[in-house]
Amino acid sequence: MSCIATSVGLGNVWRFPFVAYQNGGGAFLIPYIIVLLLIGKPMYYLECFLGQFSSRNSIRVWALAPAMKGTGYATALVCGYVVSYYVSIVALCLFYLSMSFQETLPWGICQPEWNDCVPSDPNQEVGVVTENATSSAELYFLNTVLQQKDGLEGGLGLPVWHLVVCLAASWIVIFMVVARGVKSSGKAAYFLALFPYVVMIILLISTVILPGAGDGILFFLTPQWDRLISLEVWYAAVTQVFFSLSVCTGAIIMFSSYNGFRQNVYRDSMIVTTLDTFTSLLSGITIFGILGNLAFELQKEVKDVVGSAGTGLAFISYPDAISKTFLPQLFSVLFFLMMTVLGVGSAVALLSTINTVMMDAFPRIRTIFMSAFCCTMGFAVGLIYVTPGGQYVLELVDYFGGTFLLLFCAIAEIMGVVWIYGLENLCEDIEFMLGFKTGFYWRFCWGIIMPVMMIVVFIYAFASYEALKFGGYYYYPTAGYVSGYMMLILGMLFVPLSISLTMYKNRTGNFIQVSYSFNFNIVNNDLCYVI
Q1: Which residues are annotated as part of the binding site for Na(+)?
Q2: CATH fold label, 2-529
Q3: Which of 486, 530, 506, 498 is CA-nearest to residue 72?
Q4: Which residues contact 74 (CB under 8 A, 6 or more apart)?
Q5: Residues 28 and 236: beta-carbon distance below 8 Å
Q6: Coil vs helix vs strand at 521
Q7: Strands 469-470 and 520-523
Q8: Whole-angstrom distance, CA of residue 219 vs CA of residue 301
Q9: How many whole angstroms separate alpha carbon 312 and alpha carbon 14?
Q10: Cβ contacts of residue 194 below 8 Å, gap of 6+?
Q11: Which pLDDT value is given to residue 119?
């Protein structure tokens, strides 16, 4: 349940739709499914196995290939980057949840100062729809909630007070869960994992009956075969699969390490990855159905219906659809409660991973104090994202720290396990633990498909780099790009530094002692390394 709560989260409901929208809807869906089958499922299964077989966290598991231990620290840094802005998304959900108890939903009506506004509430009078018409849900999100600036040239601005309150509340909730320890957080995972599906299915049913929804859904489901040769779409698909499944963050390894040694982790990984795919498709159909309705009302094409929202797409589309339901306040409360639950579930997993690594480094510090320290630091960093320029920073961190670095970590991880520890050793360990041989599909994916595809996509991303643009139009100041590359390089440096340190320690022997193997003793169903 913890793995479901980790993998089925905001990455599916919040991030997947806007990545699909940025990459052409149906043009993105086919590469996403292919990548999920060839990279996502095998990587998830691999991490579940590593955690369960070793009973160790994402750092200590690298006793299998000591030179690659830096990969574990790099993935922990990815967790830090992602959770820093993840909780700001939870704060947005909390704010919308608090606004859902009003007699009239505030994003459903137009304010006098909003020009060319089309109300999302169907009970409001609609004026003349102009070429520059914008939904009230989008204007409310940008002007009232975020108070978003037109750029970063004048600085970030001061934090928006109502978002600061919601950010603090989010971190307090996360602290209350994490401070109880990883095992106890698994109890909360039952609710965190199951409740969202009830709300999502209800929202989907209410969406598909809206006028124009069919056009949006067709835009999402119709393949564009010519885009299959675009490596840009494949890069987006690979990084979204990693983000959606939470692989290469250390979270899956950490949770799996608490399994019994004979737990059928193969079955579990297939269930979780299938549910994850189902959730992404469910949220994608819902979002694009809403976009189809918006296109119908604004008299635009689906691809042009949302302007510069970027990662905020979900906070425009979902509220717009909720305003059109027969009980908008009830649906709004349920939906944003669901989003909050999803966000807390994912944030708890990521922070627990960081907590585990920190507790491993400082074992004398009690869990509650380490959790308090991590949450306080997270809140302090998170204040950046609740400023008027915060969304610009969020997209920058997501691109360099949440996707680019994540792909690098995935390449390092698969090379360390399959090429250094050895594919045959891996398959023999799986047979020992689960009692059945590893099939050709898994061997082929781990040994050839995964490393080759990821390396090709990573090289392409570097070779054909085009400056990141916020909302597809705004170029960041030079300092923004420099900061992004510093985040990326900082994470990447862990791997060569770890290799160099291992070379130094073993300068009279072998460079990488491939003979380090899983020589195990099983005591009380715990696996211990003997090196």
Answers
A1: 8, 12, 244, 342, 346
A2: Amino acid/polyamine transporter I (1.20.1740)
A3: 498
A4: 405, 408, 409, 412, 491, 492, 494, 495
A5: yes
A6: strand
A7: unpaired
A8: 10
A9: 8
A10: none
A11: 86
Compute the distance between CA of residue 481 and CA of residue 271 in angstroms, rounded to an integer. 39
Write the CB contacts of 301 (distance below 8 Å, at least 6 apart in sequence): 295
Provide the token pair at 38. Answer: 């060839």
Backbone φ/ψ region at 348: left (φ over 0), alpha (ψ -120 to 50), beta = alpha
**H helices of 328-404, where?**
328-361, 367-382, 390-399
- SS3 state of residue 149: coil
At residue 193, the pLDDT reads 64
Question: What is the residue type of 72?
Answer: G
- The one-letter code for the residue type at 381 is V
CA distances to 43, 208, 383, 508 from 447, rounded to whole Å, are 12, 43, 43, 31
Number of alpha helices (DSSP H) and beta strands (DSSP E) in the chain? 22, 6
- pLDDT on residue 6: 57
Residue 339: alpha-carbon gap to chain centroid: 13
Q: How far apart are CA 308 and CA 470, in angstroms?
A: 7
Query: What is the pLDDT at residue 181?
Result: 60
Q: 526 exposed, middle or buried (CB, 10 Å; 0-12, 13-18, 19+)?
A: middle
Residues of the chain with confidence (pLDDT) below 70: 1-8, 126-132, 181-193, 305-311, 507-531
Helix ranges (H only) for 383-477 are 390-399, 405-414, 423-434, 440-444, 450-463
Token pair listed for 106: 């505030």
121 near 104, Cβ under 8 Å?
yes
Q: Cα–Cα distances in Å, from 105 out to 109, 210, 291?
A: 8, 19, 19
CA 261, CA 48: separation in Å to the nearest integer?
Answer: 11
pLDDT score recorded for residue 129: 63
CB 35 within 8 A of CB 366: no
Break the chain down into helix, strand, coil percent, rounded to 5: 70, 5, 25
State pTM to two decimals. 0.86
Encoded amino acid at 404, one letter? F
| Burial class of residue 377 (count of CB atoms within 10 Å of its CB; 0-12, 13-18, 19+) | middle
In the structure encoding, which two tokens stand for residue 30, read together? Answer: 């086919």
- Could you tell me the CA-to-CA distances from 179 to 5, 185, 382 in Å, in that order? 18, 9, 19
CB hemisphere CA count around 194 (13 angstroms):
7
Q: Three-state SS for 524?
A: coil
Q: What are phi and psi of 522, to 5 degrees?
A: -105, 115
Model pLDDT for residues 323-339, shown as the tens digit of each residue: 877 788 888 898 898 88
Instruction: List the structure tokens of 530.
Output: 């003997």
Query: How far is Cα of residue 217 from the mean position of the Cα atoms in its chain?
Result: 23
| Domain segments of the chain as ranges | 2-529
- Binding-site entries: 8, 12, 244, 342, 346
Task: Retrieve residue 54's tokens.
Answer: 């070793």
> What pairs with residue 117 in β-bridges?
134
Give the Cα separation of 169 and 181 in Å (integer): 20
